[in-house]
Every structure is written in C-alpha cells, then in structure tokens.
Amino acid sequence: MTKIICSPGSYIQGPGELKKLAGYYSLLGSKGAYLIVDAFILKTYKDEIISSFEAENIPYSINEFGGECSMREIRKHVENMGEYDAVFGIGGGKTLDTAKGVGICYGSSPCIIVPTAASTDAPCSRLSVLYTEDHAFDQYMPLHRNPDMVIVDTDVIAKAPVRFLMAGIGDAFATYFEAAACEKKNAVTMTGGHCTKGGMALAKLCLDTLYEDGLKAKAAVQRQVSTKALENVIEANTYLSGVGFESGGLAAAHAIHNGLTNLEETHHLLHGEKVAFGALTQLVLENRSAEEIEKAVRFLKACDLPVTLGDLNLADADDAKLMIAAESACAPDDTMGNMPFEVTPADILAAMKATDQIAKQY
Ligand SMILES: [Zn+2]
C-alpha cells in the first residue's frame, strides 16, 4: 500500500513577513515576480508588498485578482505573465488557488503563496478549487506539486476581519473528522496515496489546537492584536489543516459544503462557514457520541459559525430544496465516497435536518 504525505517546500510564519517578499523571491527566481493580489489587499498593503522589491531593485508586476477562481481567470494571468519567472498569490483563498493554477498547473513557475487571512486551508495544498463564473463549485484541479513557499504575516492576519479567522476555524475543524473517516475506509487521499501516521497526527493536532486556542485567538483578532493563541490557530488553520486535509483526505463535510454551493441562499457564506455545518452534519451522520456532538455545537456556535439551517439562510427551505444539496453532495466525483459506510442523498437530508434540530437545543 502506497502512503503519501505532501507539504509546501517551506512554511514561514511571523510578524512583518509582507515586507520581506523580495528576499524570499530571490531564492527561487531572477527575472522578476508576477504578483496576483486581492483588490482590497492591494489598496491596504501595496506599500508593504512592493517595499522589498523596490529596495532590492527586483522587477515585479502587480496584477489585481478578478474576483473568482475560474478557468478564465487562470488563463488570463498565464497569458499576462510573460517573462516573469515566479508567481505570487497574495490575498484570500481564491486568489491563492488562482496563483497555484497559474504557477504550478500552466506556467511551471515557482509559486509563492501569501495568505492575508487564515480563512481556509487552501494555501499549503497541491490543489485548486475551481468555481464557475456564477460562483458555484465547478471542479477540483489537482496540481503535480505543492507551493514552493507559504508565507504568513501574523500582523496582517491579526488585522483581518474576525469572520475570516472564524471561517478558517470552520474549515480546519472538519480536517480531523474527514481524515478519520478516510482512515477507517482506507480511502485514497488527495495525494493519490493512503494516509500516513504523520498526516493523521497533524489532523488531530489541528482539532486539539482549535479547541484549546480557538476562542482565545478570536479575542485577539477582535482587538487586532497577535498573541500566542492566535499564532497557534493561524498555524492550525493554514498548515496543520492544509497538510491534514490533503494527506488525510476529505469526506462528508466538504461534500456537503459543495452541495450547499448549489443553493443561492448560501452564496454569501464563506467556504469555512459552510464546511462547519458540513462537519457537524458528518458527526450526526456518523452518530458520534452525544458529548462529542454537544462539544462541537457549543464550540462552533461560540465561533459564530453556522450550526442550524437558519444560520445558512435556509430556514424556509423545503425538502425538495435541501435535496438539491444532498444529491449534489453524493455526486460520484465528490468525496462522500470516502465515508466508511454507504451514504445516500436521503441520509444527508435526514442528517442535515437532525443537525439543525440538535443545534437548536444548545
Ligand atoms: Zn476546505
């Protein structure tokens, strides 16, 4: 049996890292850096981003992210990149996935990922998630290698909206449960191999870190300061969850997320917010212990993450509507098949409604 664990070439986390990008670029390229940057981040942090390139006289090209990680957006940047020999993605998950598509899938250039919020576990993985122009889940785009570097500036994360950090906790919360399901099923993970002890250990450490430091980190970001707890949660959301999901595998939680993206009512929600509900639904689907489910509901609620259908803007949704999400979650090319028992759309519908009812009790 082949076992595989994948990770980025380097994971770098600390205060003030945004002002050091040119130094890291110099380790990987020489002709100039192609930067894809979120519009808001460009407005707020342009001086910090370009300061080291200016100081070290390294050519760079700044390009605003178009707003959706789609095939069209990726192709646009591949065409624009020209002679630049490394691509940076600076911003949220979709910007980073776009940069990975540009650098790794089409350009074969070194790829440096700079998340400006700890809102998803996308930064470290060898995977981009593509969406349609209408913001519905399109497909997973597997890449042949992980990013060369992932650089996280903790000062920037501390000043990002608290909702982003909480969404990252929602995404990271699912990691252990999905990896555990995959291990039980002996499923092939996102790496194309089976899970290692290392992958499982990181996934478990991710969950333990969230339960221990999640709410302390929330408090830190509410006051826009960086603390040890915030540093721990940034690492959990970004690295532990990133390597954990990729090398541990995805299962029901993300499949339910993908199903929910078909319902327009949920389009205002962040990835990790929908994953949080997906994770809770997976626990109900697995019939985990009452204590474990109560602990999860109370924690996710305290993180302001969705635990009921009402929280997902689906309070008025009838069974036919919920069934659209449930059926999509069970699509053969999604990860529901990694659950260690057979799951039908009717099982998902029942678990979503039961989750809603249980969560209302706490
Ligand atoms: Zn995710």
Tags for this model:
alpha/beta, 362 residues, two-stranded antiparallel sheet, 52% helix, 13 helices, binds zinc ion
Write structural notes for this entry:
The strands form two sheets. A six-stranded parallel beta sheet has the order 1-8-5-4-2-3, sandwiched between helices. It has helices at 21-26, 39-55, 71-81, 93-106, 154-159, 162-185, 197-222, 228-248, 252-260, 271-285, 290-302, 319-329, 345-360, and strands spanning 10-14, 33-37, 60-64, 86-91, 111-115, 127-131, 137-142, 149-153. It is an alpha/beta fold and 362 residues long. The chain is globular, with a radius of gyration of 20 Å. 54% of the residues are buried. 52% of the residues lie in helices and 12% in strands. It contains 13 helices and eight strands. β6 and β7 form a beta hairpin. The longest helix is centred in the middle third of the chain and has 26 residues, at 197-222. Bound molecules: zinc ion. Residues 120-121, 171, 254, 271, 275 line the site of zinc ion. The site of zinc ion has 6 residues, from α10.
Largest sheet: 6 strands, parallel
Overall outline: globular
Q: What string, H for helix and E for strand, traces the elements in order?
A: EHEHEHEHEEEEHHHHHHHHH
Helix content: 40-55%
How many strand elements?
8
Tell me the strand percentage band: 5-15%
Question: Which blocks of ≥5 consecutive residues have pLDDT under 50?
Answer: none
How does the helix and strand content classify structurally? Answer: alpha/beta
Question: Separation of termini?
Answer: 43 Å
- The tally of helices reads 13
Cofactors, ions, other ligands: zinc ion
Largest beta sheet: strand ordering: 1-8-5-4-2-3
C-alpha Rg (nearest Å): 20 Å
- Indicate the mean pLDDT: 95
